[in-house]
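Case 459 in the screening queue. Each case pairs one protein sequence with one candidate compound; here the compound is flavin-adenine dinucleotide. For every case the pipeline is the same: read the inputs, emit a complex structure as tokens, and attach any notable structural observations.

Predict complex for case 459.
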Amino acid sequence: MSVAAPLRSHGPEAPRVAVVGAGLLGLTAAYRLAQAGMGVTVYERDSQLGGLAGTTPLDGIPIDRFYHVTLPTDERVLELAAELGLGDRFRFRRSGVGFYHQGRLASMSTPAELLRFPGLGPVDRMRLVAFVARCQVGDDYSRLEETPIEDWLVRICGRRTWEVLWRPLLDSKFDGRYQDLPATYLWARSRRMSRSRDKSSQEMMGSLDGGYQTLVDALGAAIEGLGGTILRNTPVKAIVSSAGRAVGTLSTRGYETHDQVISTLLPVATAPLLGRDLASAVGPDRNRYLGIVCLVMRLRRSLSPWYTLNITDRRVPLTGVIETTHVVDPERVGGTLVYAPKYVNPDSAELELTSEELKEAYMGHVRTMFPGFSPQDDVLASQVARARVAEPVHTLGGEGRVPDMFPAPGLAMASSAHVYPEIVNGQAAIGVAEKLVDGLLPRLQDVSTELPLATRRAS
Ligand SMILES: Cc1cc2nc3c(=O)[nH]c(=O)nc-3n(C[C@H](O)[C@H](O)[C@H](O)COP(=O)(O)OP(=O)(O)OC[C@H]3O[C@@H](n4cnc5c(N)ncnc54)[C@H](O)[C@@H]3O)c2cc1C
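Case 459 output:
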């Protein structure tokens, strides 16, 4: 994005902007606003920055809490990292894809391998190739928005491919609730993955040395370098309003006034922070959400040759098995890292299980697929991460469900719920942050002339 010339120099007269949440989205927005001369304060509930994209120590060595990679086509991530002096710290590799299908493992890393997918006839295979090619053509998704994903896939790929491939994949990604998804989801996903293929038609994936944590920490330092403030361990308890206008934040530090409050939390997490006037301006939350439960293990040995193992054999109730050290340097994370995630509905009983119960169950699932895997002998360290609400699910008519970014004076909302029709990821989060700032700067120009300076100084 182009950063506008500063509205004012940093200082007591700069418009004061609160950013709630120091994930990738909030920090990118805060950085751009600080560059534009705003007086930025970022509130973060946790002791570290990064949210879902951050690291966690596993036996003292930092690893991604949830597995993260960057694709070569994630140009916003790469450009932002380069701007912060991290451009030479990415490493890209070819990454393989496997499938666990009808009790067997098979490589599906190239289109030629995918064409040998078991259980499909020659016509199904031709239709599958045509489907992937079709997703690459044109940018107009308006007709897909109202098309149920099953109808679309059955029409293009045939009933057998739906039953053998697509249905179990969607079942594993959406915890059984895929019936209300629009065709847009798989269209966008297929485009993202196809574009990351290299000349040999294999997917390329990369990782930043130190993970996304390196990027968010660099953003944090840059914000502070521009005069902004980052408050860790400071959850916002309420976004305070007066006569329908957001005027400040109530956090563990008490009440602080701001000319603008930006919530980068998902609408479901922002709603409890709003009083009645702001809540009615925001309107009802029309999204549903997915949570995640994710086992990570540091292993003595590699389990498979693939970064991603998709699971179409639904006797194994995991979303996949991700061996990140096919992309991330094993030396950096203390050895081979394997994640066993399961996306779950937010009311799933699995979110209530203890870590020990989850470890036992998920390691058992891994053992079903890899009978030689021994939790006792192979696992050096393990832990379970979970998030009750990890990402929004845009259902049929998704575009109409994207929330308003500027629902009330003084209040902006920008989160993964604004990512559509793209798939939720770091690239998309940065895009939302930059769109937010582009829309906000002219409004702040108005604020800086509209509000009496005393309002700001009163704080
Ligand atoms: C399993 C998994 C795998 C993924 N893999 C990839 C990948 O490979 N590549 C990729 O690009 N993306 C990936 N993503 C997506 C990526 O993590 C997200 O798109 C991105 O991190 C979203 O950032 P965010 O700032 O919108 O939200 P979050 O990261 O959720 O940030 C929100 C922040 O707000 C804070 N917060 C919450 N409540 C409050 C409060 N009341 N007051 C103050 N602070 C608060 C939270 O602590 C958090 O830091 C993955 C996500 C998951 C779940």
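Case 459 observations:
- The pocket of flavin-adenine dinucleotide is lined by residues 20-26, 43-46, 51-53, 66-69, 235-236, 264-265, 269, 292, 294, 341, 390, 415-416, 424-427, 429 (CB under 6 Å).
- The longest strand covers residues 379-393.
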